[in-house]
C-alpha cells in the first residue's frame, strides 16, 4: 500500500508540474545566462535549491555537480537533471520540477521608434520578430517600415534589414525571423521629405511607400493661390555629397531627404 501511495504521489507531482508548465507557458522557454530557477525533487527536500544559470549556461547541482542547461527548455532541463540523478545511482525514479524565479537570460532589446522600447524575455523558443514588435507596442507614427535585427548566429555576427509590411502584404513569411537571446531590434525614424515655397503647408513629411512627387505635393496641401504644380524644383543629395537640382515629373518617386520647392506661377 505504501509503495502504491508513493507511485500515486509521484504521478500526481508529475501531473501538477505538467499542468503548471502548460498554464504559465514556460515549459518551452529556453533557459539562458542570468535566469534564476528553483529545482525540486519529489520526496527529497535536501535537493531543493535556488540557483542562477551562469554566463556559460551551467548550474551546480547537489550530487551531480555541473549541469549545462543553457539553451534547454524547462522541460528538457528537468529531464537532464533527472537522468543524471538516476544514472548516478542516487535516486531510482526522480521526479524533478524546475520553476522560473526570475528571467534575465534570453532577452531581446527593442530600440528606436517603438511605443515601449526596452528588453523583453523570449518566453518561448518560437518567438518571432512580429511577436516581439507587438510586445514593444509596435512602431510609432515616426517609425520606419524597415527594421534592423542584429545578433549572433552560428558564432558569427548577424545583421539583417527587414521590411515589416512585406512579411504580410507580399507573403514573405521567411523574413519573420525566429529570434534568439541577445538579439537587438532597431526601428529607425522613417525617411522624410521637405516641401516649401508656394504651398499650403510647408514643412517635413514622412515618405509613404512608393510615394510620388504628386503625392508629396498633396501632403503639403497643394500649391497655394500663387503657386503652380508645373513649376517645381527638386534638390536631391547624391551619394557623393553633392546636391542635384532637377525639375521633377509628377510621377517621379520621392527619395529620403528630398527638398521640393514650389515656384510662384508666372501668370
From TrEMBL:
Domain Soluble ligand binding residue range list: 192-246
Signal peptide: 1-22
Taxonomic superkingdom: Bacteria
Pfam families for this protein: Poly_export (PF02563), SLBB (PF10531), SLBB_2 (PF22461)
Bilayer topology term: Multi-pass membrane protein
InterPro entries for the chain: Poly_export (IPR049712), Poly_export_N (IPR003715), Polysacc_export_EpsE (IPR017478), SLBB_dom (IPR054765), Soluble_ligand-bd (IPR019554)
Domain Polysaccharide export protein N-terminal: 26-100
Annotated protein name in UniProt: Polysaccharide export protein EpsE
Amino acid at each position: 500500500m505504501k509503495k502504491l501511495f508513493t507511485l500515486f504521489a509521484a504521478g500526481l507531482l508529475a501531473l501538477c508540474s505538467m499542468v503548471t508548465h502548460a498554464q504559465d507557458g514556460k515549459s518551452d522557454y529556453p533557459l539562458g545566462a542570468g535566469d534564476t530557477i528553483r529545482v525540486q525533487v519529489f520526496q527529497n527536500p535536501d535537493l531543493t535549491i535556488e540557483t542562477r544559470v551562469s554566463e556559460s549556461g551551467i548550474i551546480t547541482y547537489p550530487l551531480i555537480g555541473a549541469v549545462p542547461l543553457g539553451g534547454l527548455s524547462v522541460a528538457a532541463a528537468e529531464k537532464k537533471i533527472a537522468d543524471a540523478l538516476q544514472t548516478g545511482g542516487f535516486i531510482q525514479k526522480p521526479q524533478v520540477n524546475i520553476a522560473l524565479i526570475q528571467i534575465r537570460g534570453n532577452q531581446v532589446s527593442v530600440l528606436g521608434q517603438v511605443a515601449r522600447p526596452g528588453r523583453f524575455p523570449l518566453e518561448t523558443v518560437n518567438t518571432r520578430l512580429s511577436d516581439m514588435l507587438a510586445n514593444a507596442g509596435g512602431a510609432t507614427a515616426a517609425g520606419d517600415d524597415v527594421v534592423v535585427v542584429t545578433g549572433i548566429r552560428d558564432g558569427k555576427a548577424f545583421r539583417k534589414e527587414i521590411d515589416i509590411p512585406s512579411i504580410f502584404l507580399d507573403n514573405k513569411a521567411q523574413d519573420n525571423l525566429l529570434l534568439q537571446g541577445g538579439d537587438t531590434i532597431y526601428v529607425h525614424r522613417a525617411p522624410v521629405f521637405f516641401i516649401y515655397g508656394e504651398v499650403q503647408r510647408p514643412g517635413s513629411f514622412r515618405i509613404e511607400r512608393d510615394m510620388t512627387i504628386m503625392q508629396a505635393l498633396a501632403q503639403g496641401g497643394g500649391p497655394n493661390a500663387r503657386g503652380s504644380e508645373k513649376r517645381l524644383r527638386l534638390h536631391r543629395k547624391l551619394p557623393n555629397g553633392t546636391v542635384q537640382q532637377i525639375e521633377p515629373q509628377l510621377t517621379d518617386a520621392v527619395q529620403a531627404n528630398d527638398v521640393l520647392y514650389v515656384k510662384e506661377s508666372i501668370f
